[in-house]
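Module 6 notes. Inverse folding takes a fixed backbone as the condition and produces residue identities as the prediction. Think of it as a translation problem where the source language is geometry and the target language is the twenty amino acids. Below is one complete input and output pair. Work through it position by position during the lab.
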């Protein structure tokens, strides 16, 4: 279990180095402890593995003031555990259900037991700015458009495949639009240099 904690901590620290999320941002975590232990999703839940992963992953996020949402499994229609204050901040509707290892999954259960004032919400309304998927549990529905894969050097936690994503604002406009501050400043300078 100590190895799972170290892997989770290394993964989140690299994630935050590549994508330094702002205070008040929303991070979504989905995972299967069965997959972490080398089994098929839902066949071998482990609160011990979930607790180890959260011990490594939560402190770096929480010390930066980032809200964490932990996705439950399909038996709860992927409802998520969040802190009540995060639900209020993001306008999320609370639902009545309590996760347990066989319905909701071990990660959601461990998060519910660990969070200070946990509530369950049905959806993040596609507002998470970043997230990690441990074991292919499909967190994409909770991420803002446009999700961009983050390639981490750590490719697995335990035996589970680790995928990470950040988001960026949509690019809008047409042929004249620019998408970086540098391009904008260049266009302003060109405009100022025009003949009158």
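Target side of the pair, the amino acids:
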């Amino acid at each position: 279990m100590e190895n799972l904690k170290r892997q989770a901590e290394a993964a989140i620290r690299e994630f935050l180095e590549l994508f330094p999320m702002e205070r008040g941002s929303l991070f979504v975590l989905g995972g299967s402890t069965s997959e972490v232990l080398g089994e098929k999703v839902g066949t071998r839940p482990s609160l011990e593995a979930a607790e180890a992963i959260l011990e490594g992953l939560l402190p770096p996020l929480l010390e930066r003031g980032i809200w964490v949402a932990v996705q439950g499994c399909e038996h709860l229609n992927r409802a998520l555990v969040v802190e009540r204050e995060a639900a209020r901040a993001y306008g999320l509707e609370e639902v009545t259900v309590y996760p347990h290892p066989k319905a909701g999954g071990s990660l959601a259960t461990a998060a519910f037991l660990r969070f200070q004032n946990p509530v369950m919400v049905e959806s993040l309304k596609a507002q998470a700015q970043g997230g990690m998927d441990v074991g292919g549990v499909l967190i994409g529905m909770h991420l803002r458009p446009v999700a961009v894969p983050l390639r981490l050097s750590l490719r697995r936690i335990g035996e589970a495949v680790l995928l990470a994503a950040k988001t960026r604002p949509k690019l809008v406009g047409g042929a004249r639009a620019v998408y970086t501050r540098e391009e904008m400043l260049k266009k302003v300078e060109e405009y100022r240099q025009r003949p009158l």
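Reference fact for the lab report: The chain has one domain: 2-192.
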